[in-house]
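Supplementary Note 3. Input sequence used for the single-chain structure prediction.
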Amino acid sequence: MVIFRQDNGIGIDPQYSEKTFEIFKRLYKREAYPGTGIWLAICKKFVEIYSGRIWIESELGKGSTLYFTLLINPTEVQRLTFNTSNNIFKLLLKCIY
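The predicted structure, written as discrete structure tokens, is reproduced below.
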């Protein structure tokens, strides 16, 4: 399963795409763009727990697309999808929204 989220933001220079997944690493000063630099690192750890892969495709000035895969069985997908009190499902939503 591949899940993705696309935006039309400022984009990321491809040479820094891996850096975005490092905890507390920011590409810009906090004054320029809010955030802690932690959410993508958490998402990466979550995706790795489920034997998945996470990556960003981006171009400066044209936005970014965040992709990730999860290797979970169909029963687990149904449980995650319909049990909105599930913390794993909430984390997935934070990753893509």
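The longest strand covers residues 53-59. The helical segments are 39-49, 74-82, 87-96.
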